[in-house]
Amino acid sequence: MKRIICVCMAFLLLLTGCQSSQDTVEEETTNNTASMESFDDTYYNIVKFEDSELREDFYLDYGATSDFSSIGRGLQILSSQYFSTSDHYMSEGQYLKLALKQEMVKRDSDYSLQPAAGTKIANISDPTMVQQIQEQDFWEKSGDKYTLKGASFVIVLDPRDKNNARLKTQMDDQSILNYGYECSEKLYEIIQSHEDFEKLKNLPVLITVYQATDLTESTVDGNYILKTYCDGSYGNSEEVNFETVLFSSTRAEELDATTSNEFDIIKSNLKDAATEAAGLVGTARYQNGEIQSMVIEAHLNVKTATELMYLSSILANGVDTRFSSDFDIKVLIYSQDELQAIVIKDRGQDVKSYYLY
Fold first, then answer.
1. Which of 51, 106, 129, 199 gets the highest tally of CB atoms within 10 A of its CB?
2. β pairing state of 352-355 and 338-345
């Protein structure tokens, strides 16, 4: 009888040990996946579990700005250096809840990422620095199960005054970067200690900092400035050189005079060919000083389909032959503000034109 009892106790202990071990592994099942095969290999396949609690909050803050896409897509690009797109699925953040996010952006919370009361940064007393935090999760798939392998976070710095009103004078970049170093480490400490992150605290985590577009100066200058990869402890922070640049602009001439000059030639050729007004604006994304992609909007005033095709061909020929650098280009061609045609030139590929007919 004693032997039977001992065997039962040993079996229960074994089960308890197994259960404890499995508690550290987050597994999910779902049929809601999206293959990204129509995109290039810098994109993740996406798996959908629960909607992020932060989605509405984020949209209200940045849905009408270029930061809306720059924050999400940029975080994917940075994450791919640590969680490969070939081995991982990505989902919306499952662990940062709205209640905790709201605590993080309060000044008087135990989990606050804001400067403490009485702090002065760049001669601004009690500035509000943090506006948003977002999360993306990364999973490995086996059969119909997805195992959590890590997560990435972005802290959005958008300096304002103590009442959260926009500053009349822009805070300098170095002060923003310095605060990014400080609040990144704070976020890591929260991930390690808060119960909401129980499933994440023993997994690799990438913490990034994004400097939001200063709408008093620009509509597109938001960019990532810092990243810290943490695996078992807080890692070494590295500055990130992402930049979005308008063409034509003084900044484009300073950063990339060759591409700026080539863009101006394409623009001039279009205007010379057009019977009426024609405008061309480009938005280019740079990483470490090298152009990665450009989206061009052409606004034409055409009166016939033949005229539209002619000017579209002028543009297609320009992007195919004028640029000496090889990067992804998309041209959206409008007439009277209605999208009429698209020209696409992917890196290393020939140009293709599509008429919306």
1. 129
2. antiparallel
